[in-house]
Amino acid sequence: MIRLPQQDSSLSRIVLLFAFATPVLAQPPLQTLIVGVDHRTTTSLNGDWHYLIDQSPGRALYTPTGSINDKSYGMNNHATIVGPHNEEYDFSTAPTLKVPGDWNTQVPQLFNYEGVVWYQRDFDAQPKPGSRTFLHIGAANYRSHVWVNQKRVCDHEGGYTPFDCEVTSVVHTGSNFVVIAVDATRLVDGIPSVGIDWFNYGGLTRDVSLVTVPKAFIDDYDVHLAHGPAWQAGNTELTGYVHVLDAPAGTAVTLDIPEAGVKTTVSTDAEGRAPFTVKASKLTLWSPESPKLYKVTLASGDDKVTDDIGFRDIRVDGTRILLNGKAVFLQGANMHAEAPVRGGRVNTDQDVTTIFGYLKDLNANFVRLAHYPHDERMERIADRDGIMVWSEIPLWQHISYDKPEVYAKATYMLNEMIRRDRNKASVILWSVSNETPNNATRTTFLTNLANEARKLDPTRLITSAIIGPAAHGNQMVNDDPFTKALDVVGQNEYIGWYTGVPEDADTMHWTLPEKPIIMSEFGAEAKAGNHGATNQRWTEEQQAYVLQHQLTMLAKIPQLRGTTPWILMDFRSPTRNIPHLQDGYNRKGLISEDGKKKQAFFTMQKAYKDHTVGKPE
Ligand code: GCB
Known about the structure:
The chain folds into 3 domains: about 5-215, Galactose-binding domain-like (Jelly Rolls, Sandwich), CATH 2.60.120.260; about 230-310, Immunoglobulin-like; about 315-610, Glycosidases (TIM Barrel, Alpha-Beta Barrel), CATH 3.20.20. The protein is of the alpha/beta class. It contains 8 helices and 36 strands. It starts with 8 loop residues before the first helix and ends in a 7-residue tail after the last helix. An 8-stranded parallel barrel has the order 25-26-27-28-29-31-33-34. A 6-stranded antiparallel beta sheet has the order 5-2-6-12-9-10. The protein has a 4-stranded antiparallel beta sheet with strand order 1-14-7-11, with no helix packed on it. The chain binds (2S,3S,4S,5R)-3,4,5-trihydroxy-6-oxo-oxane-2-carboxylic acid. (2S,3S,4S,5R)-3,4,5-trihydroxy-6-oxo-oxane-2-carboxylic acid binds near residues 371, 434, 566, 586 and 588.
């Protein structure tokens, strides 16, 4: 029989990693994800967590196989691991890792570790009768399995989105403990799959907290400017829904936006959803020039959440992108979620402030958050500072397009991304993929996914970054059938770096879909401080020269509506190993990882200031 430890304080930390009597759980269709957690009063569980490295995944503690829908997914309940071995896993004497934080940049021994790490911490709780408690995990890469007081509470797959495990029935007054096994192993059938050009930071990479809510509570809401003809009529109709989890039909919900003269009460339907459409007395629409946010308070019974929400309209008109009815040109840059200077995953206010300082200095009004949803702070500051955002799921290049379970994961991640950020005015584009192979199986997969995104959020534009095909002489023709499913087409190309010479761009003729186009990747590598001639690769001069020729080419693309050079900052990538030049970094940054602006930064800064491409109408 499996011996379970008593829940006294000393034993609570000698957690039996493997003494779980509960059956292995499969991930439910959509794990609870409470919207606006960062605007609720929560108990932070950030700080020091004990950790143990799982030395033998697959043998005793953990089975790193299976998928979201696979019942065998998760811990191995092997009988031989109980008993005397338990003392070998004593968290109380184990070292600690900071949460939030990737393990790679905290412990030298874990720098290249892509396996399982067990996290543990004690926490105090005072659950009020009638309340519910959730464990909120901002992101854990790539899969996680969560126990509270030895009870399996949830599993999650996906490294870049939050999830909330309900722990109401297992948390008691006084001292409790949580154990999370985080597995950073890359999976062939994961999203992304095994081949990526960025660093696979593992661990509890974003904030962790306890969220206490009443029995029925607001878990989801959507408050936006009406997108239909009413918008053209007066810009003042707001619409959306508030969802109250586990509320009986007819539960009252109030929506209060004092500054817009909105105060209304609606009631939930049988699904707990309270739709509304309401007229605001006046509205200042959100835009980069005027990033106006309103205090929006939603309340139902004892639950109340106040969010900061901007209202704006984004749509396509022929080959133009209209923000609040006015044509916009998106002057931006790509970003990985890597912290400036200190390295590691972005997860502090300081990280995002530095990044947005760089973007403002570049004269950017737009950022492509590649290649996965970033920390929610990014969208929050984008809302506040007036930077438009492209947000993307981690569907990168080659994944298992032929597997229904992989499609299920993609839709799951899409759902999570949209749910978390649908109230952020800064987000104007949902991207469903980056650089995927052009074949029928992929096209069906991605077309369905793009349609799913549109169904989930008909108020935003759907995009994807497309690569290729190869140039024929001075002709580039993008005839990828998947672009039919998109509102805005992202085009990636590396003329002058991966193909040809920089000057090839001057005479390149593009045939592109008659849709708004964003040149979503272009650029070259340079090591900051490495100088030489413009035809000398890896120099700052050559990188800037490549961009200058790109600008000549870009100015001639009539339907071009945005540019995002690859990439704002150099970023870690284990596949980039040229000694002294790359040393483990992709060097296409306009800025080095330690904050040095390269010549290319100033090339783009000037182009954006002068509107070298995309003059405003
Ligand atoms: C690409 C990818 C991006 C890479 C970049 C590069 O096309 O979309 O993830 O990092 O090229 O530097 O090769």
